Amino acid sequence: MTPTLPAALTGQGLTGQGQGTSPGGAGPFDHGGTGNGGGLTLNDGAPPRRATAIRSKLADAARHYAGQWLVWAVLAFLVAVPVGAFLVQVFVPRLFDQGTSWFTLSNLTQAFQGHTFLGLFNSLWVSTVVCVIDLVIGGGVAWLSMRTTIGGRRVWPGMMWGLLLVPTWLMAQGWQYLTEPNGVLSQVGMYSPLVHHIIFSPIGVVLVDSLATAPYAYLTLSAALGGLGSQFEEAVRVHGGGRVATFRVIVPVLAPAVLASVALVFVETMSDYGVASTLAIQSRFTMATYGIYQAINNLPAQFPVAGAISILLLASAAIPLALQSRVTRGRSYAILSGRTRPATRYRLGRAGKWSLTSVVGLFFLVALGAPGLGAFAGSFVANLGSPLGGQSLTLANYREVFSGDIAYTHSIAEGASGTSGPVLLSTMLAAITATITVVVGLAVARLLVARRPGRFTKAGDLLILGSIALPGIVLGAGYIFAFNLPIASRLGIDLYETLPLLVMGYLATSIPTTSRIMMGPVAQVHGSLMEAGRVHGARALSALRSCYVPVVSRVLVLVWLVTLTKTFWELPISQLLYPPGQETVSVAIDSWNNNYHPEVGAAMTVVALGACFLVIGLVLGGFRLVAPKGWRRMGGWRSVA
Amino acid sequence: MAAVTTAAAMATTGIVATTATVAAAATSGPTLVVYSAQGYDSAETTAFEKATGIKVTLDDDSTGPLLIKVEAEKNNPKWGLLWVDGATAFASLDQQGLLMKGWEPTVTWNTLGKQAVPTDMSYIPTGLTMAGTLVYEPKEVPNPPTTWQQLLNPKWANEIGMNDPAVSGPTYPFVAGMMNYLGGVAQGEKFYKTLNGNGLQINLTNGNTLEALEAGIIKLALIQSSAGIGAGLKTHGLVKVKFLDPVTSLPSAIGIDSKAPKAEQLEAEKFVEFVMSAQGQKIMQSGDPTGDSLYWPVLQGVSPLSALPPLSSIHAQTINPYTWGAREDAVNTWFTDNIVE
Hints:
- The complex is a heterodimer of chains A (641) and B (341).
- With 641 residues, chain A is mostly helical.
- Chain A has 29 helices and no strands.
- In chain A, α13 packs antiparallel against α17 and α22 (472-483) packs across α24.
- Mean pLDDT of chain B is 89; it is low at 21-30.
- At the A-B interface, α3, α5, α15, α20 and α22 of A face α1, β1, α2, β2 and α3 of B.
């Protein structure tokens, strides 16, 4: 983190070289913090022997960098190896039996032609527009609920989290049910061909993608607003500044969060398949991820072509990354320290309060209502899962989910091989994934926001953002290439189709997103917090526990829940890596749908959503009960946990 | 900083170590691994285990992900037996050398069964459905088209939907079948271009196209027969199926992994024999009564379920899976470039 220390804590005589410049964000009081060759030299003052000095420096460097290297190495193992395996067969298809050539560029040139190039172009412009819309939605809801007296301000963050729970395919399906000729609007005499055509067009694609990714913008921006105390506004006021001056001071402080939001929303939209395979394809609007799926689903599978499109997706992640790097590199945005004051709320007038409350309420009614309709309505009808056509309502689909009379394979109670059912299994796997992700993601986020980045930071950042831009199927197939090698099998290491490899696959998708989400809150935590603890005699881990964790605890809890939810619903990696007989909930729902029982799939979706909400409620309730009040007031994303 | 990274490093190292340990433990398991997309596969494998004592690990998933896994595992296959729809898919796997050849169960095929058995005996047909059957709601369409050419009539502009053959397994045989019927690839391309000019709607899979039909987005759906007949059963006749002349037969089939250990291949053969036995056929017909159980048997002496029309009332054509399987990539690419977009 930032090495800058308050003068009162540093003491020029102690640090030797003034304010710290140690690499990787280590403060001068970190144990062994000798990044600038100065640091802890409070010894007897005698010149050390040369050999001892070198040994000491090496030991210090090892201690200092070992953790960083290990974190990057693990990330490379989880992400770079499988992605690399998938991408290398673009040029060397024979390596994994995917062609006869030892070197070719034909797959790459194919990606620049016809529908694949058009798909990439469409994905790029849709993602850019979605970024702008989400800044308005996410930033607007964050500011209104955190910095004004708008009605229902304790409800809106929860709603935003609710939106995060909804898979994009479910959202697209909901909009379809709403606007189609026999849809809900039609049932109440409000069907409009114009609305139908708008939804089934690129505008509809942008709309649904914007709603699906708005929570990412909200999370990154609200974290920044939560950590932004009133001291900046007060300082402007003290110096006679008005609203414009306040705005000019505040906006640059929020720059990392805005850029983090843009980067995350951009790559999340680029990688989405849920909308690309539903609304988009029905609108004859091809997107990059659909091209990847088409190539992989072909027979023989065109993995090298899919890999070539993936390279272009990976490269697209460099756009927001370059923007972010250009704006933020070398500057400190730390605002959350021991002196941060609670923010004051802007008092809205009566008319303003009600009108803004209505706007936000209407937004959530539409955003959550449409997919809610998709999930719930289909689960209570007796036939195809569509809520229409005058069929009778029934609870039979729910009975099927719990009993598995049609085919017990995917029932709640039992998987195909008599193992525990999909909901329980997915909950367990998601909890494990979320726990590891929070710890590793926090470490990666700290490495990413360091003012003096480590040796691998830039490459790591590109890898992280690039991997988010890749659809899950690429990682899934990459995992098969990388971890199902014949030589490994000969050595008795068969990771493929085991639960541990599935968790590794989940980690590969969750750690990058989580790191990016946490960058905003982490960038705001002043390094002085840890250093203050160390000054008062705490060891590193103790200082971490007592000074750092309380400040970021709420962030960690919320990130844990995001990861849990996303992992719970993850489909492409689950489909390729789950051990036979141990279906995850997403695989089970997909199988119901593909075996012509979408009504049972819809019922299982509702049950799974219920399980998800239950876990979230328990965790948030537990945090409220267990965590001291002060923990819940610090570090962003206030009024949720 | 160091404390956080150290904690993270410890956590991840621990996970990797645990992963390796658990994975090593997980390697000892049952010998026969079945990859299947059939709705009745779970019932079938359970009965097989009970009857023979051979333990089966079932990977029950959609055809698409299963074929992706088979292709991605090429250099180190984990499956022992694959059971999905589409002879062209099996022909493609056979041409890649992924299927065991030269073995068929000792059974009495009916006429359709004989036609579906490949000459190199690399896969075993287990039943037949039809690709590209016409599904509609009689309430909305009292007089559906009776020939393929009528689909090109402006009367049906923007009212016809089908699946994307590059994503939906049972749809490529339909596209290939039309090309075969019309006299070749060029003639087939002309047909689909004209159909597309008449406002053809493209969806992902059978389920999506059926949803579009029920939602009123389209009035005629061209999908697999089992999906259409199943929808008719579930809606108590609100949805009906018509077989235009000709429809293309779509065999469900079993293939055995050519690289599997001999012991597993023998167990796979026993599994096939069980499926083709009277008990196995009964389970196929009862395991998924509104879905995959709606097939025409390929064995003499086994009658189809009553919901299925007699085969004598349908003109079904069989396409050469090896000829058309080899063209799948080219045809799908053309379809994507000219029809899907």
